[in-house]
Amino acid sequence: MFASRMRTFNVLKQNTSLLSKRLQSTAPKVAPVKKSSILKPIFYGSLLAATAAVGYGVYGLYKEQHPAPLPVETQSNKKKLVILGTGWASITLLKSIDTSLYDITVISPRDHFLFTPLLPSAPVSTVAVESIKEDVSTLIRQGSGKVTFLQKEALDVDPQNKKVIVEGDKAVDYDILVFSVGAQPNTFGIPGVYENALFMKEANDAVILKAKLKENLQKATELPAGSQERKDLLSMIVVGGGPTGVETAAELQDYISEEVAKWNPELAADCQIHLVEGLGNILGMFDQKMYTLAQDHLKKNGVALKLNAMAQKVVGNTITVKDSKTQELVDMKFGILIWATGNGTRPVTAKLMSRLPETQNNRRGLLINQKLELLGAEGSIYALGDCTFHKGLVPTAQVAHQEGEYLAKVLETRHIIDNTDNDAVKASLAKTIKDFDYFNQGALCYIGGESAINDIKMSKKIEFKLGGSFLSFKVWQCAYLAMAVTWRTRFLIACDWIKVHIVGRQ
Amino acid sequence: MFASRMRTFNVLKQNTSLLSKRLQSTAPKVAPVKKSSILKPIFYGSLLAATAAVGYGVYGLYKEQHPAPLPVETQSNKKKLVILGTGWASITLLKSIDTSLYDITVISPRDHFLFTPLLPSAPVSTVAVESIKEDVSTLIRQGSGKVTFLQKEALDVDPQNKKVIVEGDKAVDYDILVFSVGAQPNTFGIPGVYENALFMKEANDAVILKAKLKENLQKATELPAGSQERKDLLSMIVVGGGPTGVETAAELQDYISEEVAKWNPELAADCQIHLVEGLGNILGMFDQKMYTLAQDHLKKNGVALKLNAMAQKVVGNTITVKDSKTQELVDMKFGILIWATGNGTRPVTAKLMSRLPETQNNRRGLLINQKLELLGAEGSIYALGDCTFHKGLVPTAQVAHQEGEYLAKVLETRHIIDNTDNDAVKASLAKTIKDFDYFNQGALCYIGGESAINDIKMSKKIEFKLGGSFLSFKVWQCAYLAMAVTWRTRFLIACDWIKVHIVGRQ
């Protein structure tokens, strides 16, 4: 890596001197000095920036891998902070807050944080599933305080007595509860989906899809090439034209075009990826120019787009979709059906709603105020992420991440307030707790064949859009690396990407 | 990598010149020139060798990743060669033979080759499971001929009619059958082992052990530190003092000492790895000095050795062992029990034996002659690897590998014989088929804490032994890399080892 980078710099240097020579020969005497004096600082500036970036990464990785010694346990007067969930909101909060201020317990049936943006890359081994998982046992050691992790599913919350009931009928007391359990796939009651589709939500979904993909490809080698039976088996339908669905379809298509076509071209010829979307276009969070670019790119790479198609039912290996314009019903056979749309309420969330019937009356999610406090339990319960429903806060990693960061600051301020005797100071501190203000940083989506579309908002005025080029892919890669929550994950993902170039995907 | 290697060379160069300067100042005038002229060729020789090695690897990897186009299928008069199994013997044969000479079909329920020597490293993620698996679909594309892979379990063989019966009642005809289905774990009828122990034989065993290990470690965090209940849960017993058992125990101990101790020192303090062996020492294939070194090293690192201990029964989470000297019975509690000893006969092997009752009368394995032909079906069935029983041929990867190489040559000669009309030529060619001559290249075993014992036989006279040092570990690593069947695997394993140094094991 370093050697090749040095080579690049040397070439750059050479070009620079060539350029300055050429300039010297044609331009008046004053000009070249000026030009060269611009290029030189750019070159050395870049070198410095690259060195600084690598140094920063190495330092970050070192710090992460060398946790501070565990604090000696003493009788604690700290308030009990219980965090339900190990997703984006919970883990961002945990990483942002001074963990020594509270007696923190994290409760979740899932012992890892999952870097969901790259989940669609995992079934085809563009990245390893292990590279996008981060153990909670290591994450809780990143701060200076002791954090307890309970790998149990929360079954119920009692807001009156401030208790969480977990599996095994155990009660965990809290002073402050952060409810961020996420959502589960939603099949909208469409018959047969739950029984016949795969999902793209948890790490294990990637493992299951990978196994199914391999199984079908192997089974297909035993069927006559070009036969309908084989084509049906190799038909893969992704339902949902959001980023998850599009990236899943794009990654599957990459796998077919790059790996299957290499090792078994006849088999690749019988594969077909379909992307089914209920609306008239995919990727609604982008503007028309961008999503049109994505649609054209996907089609060019071989993905069959089916727009305005509403899923009606799934029976065995057939999904019936209705064209929302012509009302025509079409049956589509599949070997693999991936349901990549819809967020549903988890049982524990529904239970919490039922505990606060007067305020929690929206089936789509928990209602919160501008300070992320749960309506009906303000002051003691905060609700974050995909389990909530609030205008302007879409169920994305970005929102959950910003909510986690915001809440860390709020809870740190609350800690100071709790430890202040002066009422006037308390009141003025309380006023410093501003409402949560979500800043949409834009959207990114990989569209296959080393291309992506990016709509990045640097500030409320500076926005830059880039799509369809190799550069857009590199920007997408850098942005995703930046989003990862640990340097370890960044390092492993980067390694995986390099590996794909050298030995392909398995 | 390259940059750091260059640094090493520069340092070496510097040292060399320093050395020659020093020599110049003290020794008579003639000497330094001579010394320096020795060091110089060593330095440049090493540089050349390293460059050649890297170049060879890159070329190998490139060739592997760019398979020749599939041959156009024509009506084939080739003999049908059916290979049962995708283990060491089968895959070595497949990689060594000219695949265009026969109409080859590989049949196995397992769609990958597993690099078994590193399987004990996989449960603790020293290497990823994916790094030691090689898809059969890519392996069958390495030769110039078309090879068919049928992912089915062979249920029966009919030696009279030359048919293999596979799942789904399908019959596959053969002219020549290579029977190399391997073995399955053998619990020697000891009650409770099959129900309560994990094994270390297939890729999935590593996945299961990894999940169990994580589950137990997490459960233990919820029990009081130092309590008997917690210690019992964190007791891990490996039965079998052969290389697999020793390496499994060593890797588990590394994981506890390096990862668990880092992230949760209290938990690591309650972990205990036990290695149980029925004989008076472990690693019987090494000499006394070597196995004593291994035993001392394991003990020093924290592994509890229990020698002369014969497993009697397993009930729930307790194994009862009998001291073969004192006849004393001891109960040992465990959270994880790994059965790493014993090879048993697979059902299809037993079935084949029953088809040839007159010649196949040894329950320990298929009987073969010196040319690896199955007794009772000479000329049409060859049996290789762990499913056979023959004096001097132990059930190891090394034997299976050499058998595969040998058989490739035999089958190539047989092809020439079949295509020769002249009987005299046929007869003289047949005489060139020599008996299989196994050459024991020695043994290697990782013993934990970056140390190994190696007994490497370069030829029948040159043998070198190395144990206990960091160098022994590096030799072990190089030897294992050399043993891998593809450059892809070599590359991935090397990457994993580097990753462990940077971000640890997950």
Q: Spatial order of the strands in the main sheet of chain A?
A: 5-2-1-9-20
Distance between the termini of chain A: 23 Å
Low-confidence stretches of chain A: 1-33
Q: What's the domain count of chain A?
A: 3
InterPro entries (chains A, B): FAD/NAD-bd_sf (IPR036188), FAD/NAD-binding_dom (IPR023753), NDH-2 (IPR045024), NDH2-like_C (IPR054585)
Domain FAD/NAD(P)-binding (chains A, B): 80-404
Pfam family, one (chains A, B): NDH2_C
Domain External alternative NADH-ubiquinone oxidoreductase-like C-terminal (chains A, B): 441-506
Explain this structure:
- The structure is a homodimer of 506-residue chains.
- Chain A has 506 residues and is an alpha/beta fold.
- Chain A is built from 15 helices and 23 strands.
- In chain A, the strands form 7 sheets. Chain A has a 5-stranded parallel β-sheet with strand order 5-2-1-9-20, with no helix packed on it. A 5-stranded parallel β-sheet of chain A has the order 11-18-12-13-14.
- In chain A, a hairpin with a 5-residue loop joins strand 21 and strand 22.
- In chain A, 40% of the residues are buried.
- Mean pLDDT of chain A is 90; it is low at 1-33.
- At the A-B interface, helix 1, strand 5, helix 6 and helix 15 of A face helix 1, strand 5, helix 6 and helix 15 of B.
